[in-house]
Amino acid sequence: MPTLPTNQAPKSPIESYLHVLHALMLRDMRTRFGASLWGYGIVVLWPCVHVFMLIAIYTFQKIAAPLGDNTPLFFATGAVPVLVFQYISREVMKAVISNRPLTYYPQVKLFDVIFARVLVEIVTGFLALLVVCSVLVLIGTNPIPPNPLTAVCGYLAAIVLGIGVGTINVAIVGFFPGWLIGYALFSIIMYISSGVIFLPSYMPDKIYYWMKYNPALQVAEWVRSAYYPYAGIQIDYFYVLAFGLTAATIGLFLVKHVVAKIQA
User: What is the pLDDT of residues 60-77, one digit of tens each?
Assistant: First the structure.
């Protein structure tokens, strides 16, 4: 029976866990994007194409931005945080569906699958953000806001919100697989009402009051407030963070029942 070499110590639990996490991330990237770097590059550029197609449409139609005098900056500041939120919340759910067979191995837990996909999406979203900022610089737009810390916090809030809603989606799709399509349709409604292509605060007060319950709208306005501090945009910071953290807590609690369902 083979034994470990005397000069090789057994791995600690933390090293073993990091090894599993690293393997899950590599498998995730290779199965989704292909073995080449180009495959991953396409996925990074996909949300960027979404942003710049939106900018191109409104620029060629000569439609002025609802706020400020820079159309690319207005749409980018609204679309990037919303897309980060939506990509994380959707891809975490898809990770559980595509990697469910791996949970039969004792070394792999469902939480590991979720955590690995979250890390991949955070890195992907950050690279996409760098690409968007680089293109904005090339077209003569300054992507650095007057309040950089506010923009960074808004971007991080979008990540927290995506993780929270993503874990809820994992729990739902564990019992109702059709939710994968249902959430895609629901995401369209959230995107349209999030204020990416318009300024929600210009809506009538009664409509704007109910629209503020959309957390995607709040993160879009959070980032936008960093670029347009004079606009007087009001953000309920507590609501956004509480929504994301509460959703994550409930989702992780329900994931235990999903694990029991998978193992049954």
Answer: 877 777 787 888 888 888
